[in-house]
Structures are given as C-alpha cells and as structure tokens.
C-alpha cells in the first residue's frame, strides 16, 4: 500500500472559472492530475488531499467536483481548506460523499493498513507577514482542534503504524520557527505532515524538510507540476 498526496486542486464548483488566469500551466490542470493519478494509484492505495478541492462555497456545488474524482482509484482522504465555509458541516459532507472511497476528516482520524491519518484545517502562524491580532485567537483555537485530531489518532494507532497529519495551512512561518502545530506534531511523534495552501512561488517554504524528527511535505498541485507526490510505502 502507498500513500500519495496532492492538495489545492481548486476545481470550479459549477462556476465558469478557468484556472489559466493564474498561469498557462493551469490550463486543463485536472486532466493532468487525473492522468498522473491513473498511472500511479492502485485500488489499495490512498491519496491525501489537504484542503481546497473546490472553489465552491456551497456543498451542492462542491459535489459536482467530487463526482469528477469518483472514478479515480484509491481512497481519497481530505480535510477542510480555505474555501469550505458553506459546506453545511462534516456530517452532511460525509452523507453526501459520492461513494465509500471518500473519507473526510475534521479534527479526527482514520486508520489504514499500517498508518493512521489525522487532519484539521490549521491557520496562519505567528511570524507570517499576514498574521494579525485577530488571527491569534483563531490560531490557538485551531491548534486545540488539531490536538483533538491527534488524540483520536493516538487511540487508533497500533504498534508499528505510521502517523500522518494533514493540515491545510503551513504549520510554521517562512523561517520554519516553532508553532503550536509543530509542538503538537512532535509531542505525538508524527512521522509525516502534509500541507498546502501555497501557490505560484512558495518562497522560503521547501517542498520537503525535516524539523524536530518530523518530515514536512508541501503538496499544492501547481507546485508539484500537477502530479501526485508519494508520501509513504507501507
């Protein structure tokens, strides 16, 4: 079994929203992702999506994008991103899933064969250029939500299981300084953390780094060349 990851697909959600306005490489981007997915992923594998599958602000619109992914092999495990405020909550999302291959995490976890995956949205971290006083409260609240996700993972984790965390926002600032999120990942002995949110030029954020014994992987689809990244082979 293999774990792959790709995030921030930004499918149109019933909108006429051509993505090539963000650069010519975005033209037909979902076709590129799907082609790579079909060449890599088997029915036994899983693909982690750290938020922003769709631009849709309503669940009814987002479902059209989820249906596009229905035929892609493997489990599709995703967590909330920036553009999901009107999706009517996690119970409604889970009830509306196109089939059983979709797994939606929100402050909780799921066990696979040899790994436990947990996820929550996260938030911008102190030291980021856009961090404000208003962000402080949300940042701390989101850290507590991730503690819930990690507590759930701890209950599911069996001897030898890898612990993989999905968070939409980068869990540290561009200097990779400590945050409440990195402290939690180290406290719970996470193996890999997958994150997204960044586009175009990731600047000082590396595609792959290690800090505090935890591996971090940036998986925004354009930064990966609209290909899936292999995270673990179990």
Describe it for me?
The chain is of the alpha/beta class. The protein contains five helices and eleven strands. A six-stranded mixed sheet has the order 5-6-7-8-10-9. Strands 4-3-2-1-11 form a five-stranded mixed sheet. Strand 3, helix 3 and strand 4 form a beta-alpha-beta unit. It starts with a strand and ends with a strand. The mean pLDDT is 90.
For the secondary structure, the number of strands is 11
Strand order of the largest sheet: 5-6-7-8-10-9
The global form is globular
Proportion of residues in helical segments: 25-40%
Largest sheet geometry? 6 strands, mixed
Strand content: 15-25%
Distance between the termini: 5 Å
Low-confidence stretches: none
- Topology as H/E string? EHEHEHEEEHEHEEEE
Number of helices: 5
**Average pLDDT level:** 90
| Helix vs. strand class | alpha/beta
Based on CA atoms alone, the radius of gyration comes out at: 16 Å
Please specify the SSE layout and strand pairing.
Blueprint (H helix, E strand, L loop, with lengths): L1 E4 L23 H12 L5 E4 L9 H10 L6 E5 L10 H6 L6 E4 L2 E4 L3 E6 L12 H24 L5 E6 L12 H8 L4 E4 L12 E4 L2 E5 L10 E5 L1
Parallel strand pairs: 1-2, 2-3, 3-4, 6-7, 7-8, 8-10
Antiparallel strand pairs: 1-11, 5-6, 9-10
């Amino acid at each position: 079994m293999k774990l792959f990851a790709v995030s921030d697909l930004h499918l149109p959600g019933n909108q006429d929203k051509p993505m090539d306005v963000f650069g010519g490489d975005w033209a037909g981007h979902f076709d590129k992702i799907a082609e790579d997915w079909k060449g890599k992923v088997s029915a036994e594998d899983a693909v982690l999506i750290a938020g922003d599958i769709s631009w849709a602000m309503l669940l009814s619109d987002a479902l059209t994008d989820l249906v596009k992914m229905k035929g892609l092999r493997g489990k599709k495990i995703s967590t909330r991103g920036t553009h999901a405020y009107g999706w009517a909550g996690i119970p409604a999302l889970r009830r509306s899933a196109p089939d059983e291959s979709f797994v939606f995490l929100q402050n909780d976890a799921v066990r696979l064969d040899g790994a436990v995956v947990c996820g929550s949205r996260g938030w911008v971290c102190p030291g980021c250029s856009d961090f404000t006083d208003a962000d402080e409260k949300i940042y701390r609240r989101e850290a507590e939500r991730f503690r819930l996700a990690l507590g759930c993972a701890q209950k599911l984790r069996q001897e030898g299981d890898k612990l993989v965390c999905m968070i939409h926002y980068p869990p540290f600032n561009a200097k990779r300084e400590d945050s409440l999120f990195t402290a939690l990942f180290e406290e719970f002995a996470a193996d890999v953390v997958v994150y997204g949110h960044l586009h175009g030029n990731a600047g000082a954020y590396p595609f792959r780094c290690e800090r505090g014994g935890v591996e971090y992987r940036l998986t925004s689809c354009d930064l990966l060349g609209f290909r899936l990244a292999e995270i673990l082979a179990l």
